[in-house]
Specification:
The chain is an alpha+beta fold and 627 residues long. It has 18 helices and 24 strands. Helix content is 35%, strand content 18%. The chain has a 5-stranded antiparallel sheet with strand order 8-9-10-11-12, with no helix packed on it. Helix 5 runs antiparallel to helix 6 and helix 8 runs antiparallel to helix 9. The two termini are 52 Å apart.
Length: 627
């Protein structure tokens, strides 16, 4: 089986090339005239000059900063492949470990040190990450200054990796050698693809510098670029669509750089290539994985692919409108502070921190809808310096409005005045990065998200599987203390009126024995959530409406409360602590008091009150609980 795989790869990624047909000038992302133009802009514009200065500072620090960070006396690339960053975590607090040279992996919260596999091997990934970024920066510094010392540094990195790459062993996140998603310099094709794009662009920038002999070029092209392209492109299908986006871009980059039509075809028109992804994985501007971190993660290689294709006669922005729609989608679910909800395997994402990506898109399309994102920053990012337009046109920033995305499965309900906002989800599960939280929502007011979604933790932590993905961890409804099944729900009704906005949504087949339907109403003064849930099999079931609010909880009710020991021990319920129970009929009011953000008294406290009444029409077969 292994031999057959290698034989197929040899036919897909042929080593023979015709050097005479390959230009020695940069062409992958920037040409020499374009670099001269960017230099001229930097001479005129302070924001571009700052970008150039930052680039030069990084270039001037090599290799000293790299050697110092990793405790090296002389420059060297790792002799062993890297490991998964999600292993590099403090088990006590969930935060990333910190590397202290020469060989200490330290928890920043406890001071404890950790060593051994796979933790020590993660440091190799950190080294590869830095060297990939350093290589591109050195290549750019050479082209922007024509100073040969920068090309020498970039060439040193490329030669070292070309020498070493064939010695890296194929391995995955668990150090198994036979996983098609494993890699060599890294433990997964995702990370190696990112690194390969950086090294390919570096080669593009310096191969005409005179620092690489003919034999160096042959060595780098065959033993590094093509060899790594074969590694990342070997899997018939990547584990998640965003990984495939990076793989497509990496293979296409090598193809464009070496004028290899087969590799370009793989990236653009292969069975899972760019065009397939645009037709399959985008709905109404939302990426299929339903996590904002992964949407922007995928948008980067998708945008890179469009940049490379444009230089070769293909305007993918026009051919595949779904690409531009990915930039529009986030605008419809942006919270008042510019954040995007922590849905599925994502933290809250700062939309305005993606300004560099929007710079590239605007320069390619001149779509003024993208400008409000760019204008939130001072254009102090490398994308603006390298690809942004010199002068941004003026635009009138319109207020965000309530919006429904029935195909993607999201609804944003905004109060007519103020900052009160609810965003709910009812669409596709999200594949491997999805959470079991159909009809879940987040609630925002003041300057923060109050009704929270757990988002994600580092995947190496058990809590990611045992809490983050569980139904009870979200503001939704669960049945019989079990987790919802992956499903696709639908919108039943949507109303956006001058004084209020309302949505009714159905969860779909999340339980074979129960139906869940939720209505949410948002006004200037309050949010009303009505759940209409019922049994489908005539048996007795317990329906839990779970809500998570930041702050200190207080029960405001006349009924007596007491400790409750009846909470389950699986599907996330095992992590509910200090449970209490209020018995009796009538209204139960909970109040959450949230301290001012960053302990700033001027913001004052926020209070969220929840009034829960008996489920209307509740029969003896159904027990309703609010958790």
């Amino acid at each position: 089986m292994h031999g057959k795989t290698l034989l197929l790869l040899a036919s897909l990624f042929p080593l023979a090339i015709q050097r005479a047909a390959i230009s020695q000038d940069p062409h992958l992302f920037l040409s020499l005239p374009e670099i001269a133009h960017r230099n001229a802009i930097a001479d005129r514009e302070p924001w571009a000059r700052a970008g150039r200065d930052e680039m030069m500072q990084v270039a001037d620090s090599f290799p000293g900063a790299y050697n110092k960070r990793f405790g090296l006396t002389t420059f060297a690339v790792p002799t062993q492949g890297g490991q998964w960053m999600h292993w590099y975590v403090c088990p006590d607090t969930g935060r990333h470990l910190e590397f202290h040279p020469p060989n200490h992996n330290v928890c920043p919260d406890t001071g404890k040190e950790y060593s051994g596999a796979p933790i020590d091997e993660v440091v190799n990934q950190l080294k590869n990450d830095e060297l990939g970024e350093d290589a591109v920066t050195l290549g750019l510094a050479y082209r922007f200054t024509n100073k040969p010392q920068y090309a020498k540094g970039a060439a040193m990195i490329l030669r070292a990796y070309a020498d070493q790459y064939g010695h890296y062993v194929l391995h995955d996140n668990y150090n198994k050698p036979d996983n098609p998603h494993g890699a060599r310099a890294y433990s997964q094709t995702l990370d190696e693809a990112i690194w390969l794009i950086e090294l390919t662009w570096t080669y593009d920038l310096i191969r005409g510098s005179g620092e690489l002999m003919a034999e160096d070029k042959t060595h780098i092209e065959n033993d590094l670029l093509r060899a790594s392209a074969a590694t990342v492109g070997k899997a018939p299908k990547e584990a998640t669509p965003n990984i495939q986006s990076w793989v497509n871009a990496a293979v296409a980059a090598v193809g464009y750089e070496l004028h290899d039509a087969a590799l370009v075809h793989y990236g653009l028109d292969g069975p899972l290539g760019f065009r397939h992804q645009m037709k399959t994985f985008v709905k109404e501007g939302f990426w299929t994985e339903g996590a904002w971190g992964y949407q922007f993660y995928a948008m980067r290689p998708l945008t890179m692919t469009a940049q490379m294709a444009a230089r070769n006669g293909n305007n993918l922005w026009k051919e595949a409108p779904a690409l531009l729609s990915l930039f529009h989608g986030p605008l419809g679910v942006t919270l008042p502070n510019g954040a995007l909800p922590a849905f599925n395997d994502s933290h809250e994402v700062d939309l305005y921190a993606q300004a560099g990506l929007y710079e590239v898109a605007f320069a390619a399309t001149y779509d003024k809808a993208l400008l409000p994102v760019i204008e939130q920053h001072e254009r102090l990012n490398r994308e603006a310096f390298l690809f942004g337009v010199e002068k941004l046109p003026l635009t009138d920033a319109s207020a965000n409005k309530s919006a429904i995305f029935p195909e993607a499965g999201y609804a944003t309900l905004r109060a007519p005045k103020g900052r009160l906002t609810v965003i709910t989800k009812f669409g596709e599960h999200g594949g491997g990065h999805g959470h079991n939280d159909k009809l879940g929502f987040i609630l925002y007011d003041g300057d923060r998200t109050l009704g929270i979604d757990p988002g994600t933790q580092l995947y190496g932590l058990p809590l990611h599987r045992e809490w983050d993905k569980m139904t009870v961890a979200h503001n939704t409804v669960g049945v019989d203390e079990t987790v919802q099944a992956p499903s696709t729900g639908k919108v039943i009704d949507w109303r956006a009126e001058p004084g209020w906005t309302a949505v009714t949504e159905d969860a779909g087949p999340v339980y074979p024995y129960a139906a869940l339907r939720r209505s949410i109403l948002v006004t200037e003064e309050y949010v009303l959530v009505v759940d209409i849930d019922h049994s489908l099999d005539g048996a007795s079931h317990t329906f839990d409406m779970t809500y998570h609010n930041v702050g200190t909880e207080q029960v405001l009710t006349h009924q007596a409360s007491a400790a409750f020991e009846g909470i389950g021990k699986r599907d996330g319920y095992q992590y509910l602590k200090d449970a209490s129970r209020v018995n009796g009929k009538g209204e139960v009011i909970l109040r959450f008091t949230t301290p001012p953000k960053d302990a700033d008294p001027k913001h004052g406290e926020y209070t969220t009150s929840i009034a829960d009444s008996d489920y209307s029409g509740k029969s003896t077969e159904t027990l309703g609980r609010v958790l």
